[in-house]
Design brief:
The protein has 251 residues and is of the alpha/beta class. The chain has a single domain, classed as Alpha-Beta Barrel (TIM Barrel), CATH 3.20.20.70. It has 10 helices and 8 strands. The protein has an 8-stranded parallel barrel, surrounded by 8 helices. Helix 3 packs parallel to helix 4, helix 6 packs parallel to helix 7 and helix 7 runs parallel beside helix 8. The longest helix is centred in the N-terminal third of the chain and has 14 residues. The two termini are 25 Å apart. The mean pLDDT is 95.
């Protein structure tokens, strides 16, 4: 799906084209966003901004998405862009997926954010409690020809991530982006039972953490906050460890 198998995970209100291009020499993919696509999700994002959280709230989110992906493409960078999106209905997801397909970008459905404002309108983590709707979103996006990823977190009460992985794979997803929290072994459980590209996230900071996830069977790893410092030591360590893992047997 992308090489090297290191992704930059979306950072709310910060992960734009400029951010992606700043680290393009290190990573194979960058997930811009998260981007709220419809009025319920945008209203929830406004409430988050009111309590000092960063959010992207352009006047026209689809035009913003198109412009951001075009900016990455125009730079002729090797990094593959993606966009992490939130929506409460299928149509804006379909429209966003069509734009992603035009730019060979990855459409990433956000089933990850756990802020109460987002969950109350049916976005983010609340999608894990409604797997049929999540699968419908995947199917709509895949039908537009976009590569589809789902971002979610482990350790959500009552959620079987292996079952979720099976459901989204059947609906046409290409990847699952797992915030492992303190349950790193779930990456192995999903990798062992699914043909999805498994992207592992959470505390990816050094050689040991990179190799741990690859040993569990992850196809790629991602970093979030360290991507704010594209010339910093953490992203360099992780990039070196990823390169090492693809050229040498892991201990």
């Amino acid at each position: 799906m992308f090489k090297p198998p290191l992704a930059l995970a979306s950072l709310s209100g910060e992960a734009d084209a400029e951010w992606a291009l700043a680290a393009a020499d290190h990573a194979g993919a960058a997930f811009l966003g998260g981007l709220a696509l419809d009025e319920p999700s945008r209203n929830a994002a406004r409430k988050l901004v009111a309590r000092d959280r960063n959010e992207f709230l352009p006047a026209d989110p689809l035009a913003f998405l198109d412009d951001q992906l075009a900016t990455v493409a125009d730079a002729e960078a090797t990094i593959r862009p993606g966009i992490n999106v939130r929506a409460t209905t299928k149509e804006p997801i379909r429209e966003a997926a069509a734009i992603c397909a035009d730019h060979d970008a990855i459409l990433e459905l956000n089933a990850h954010c756990r802020q109460a404002e987002l969950c109350a309108v049916g976005c983010g983590e609340s999608l894990l409690a409604d797997p049929d709707r999540l699968a419908e979103y995947v199917a709509v996006a895949a039908a537009e020809g976009a590569a589809v990823s789902v971002k979610l977190r482990a350790e959500v009460d009552g959620v079987d991530l292996v079952a979720v992985a099976e459901s989204i794979a059947a609906a046409g997803a290409d990847a699952i982006h797992i915030d492992a929290m303190d349950a790193e072994s779930v990456v192995g459980e999903v990798a062992a039972t699914s043909d999805l590209v498994v992207i592992a996230n959470n505390e990816v900071r050094d050689r040991d953490s990179v190799h741990e996830y690859f040993e569990y069977g992850a196809d790629a790893v991602s970093i979030g906050r360290p991507s704010r410092e594209p010339d910093g030591p953490i992203i360099a360590r992780v990039a070196n460890a990823v390169a090492e893992s693809t050229t040498e047997p892991m201990p």
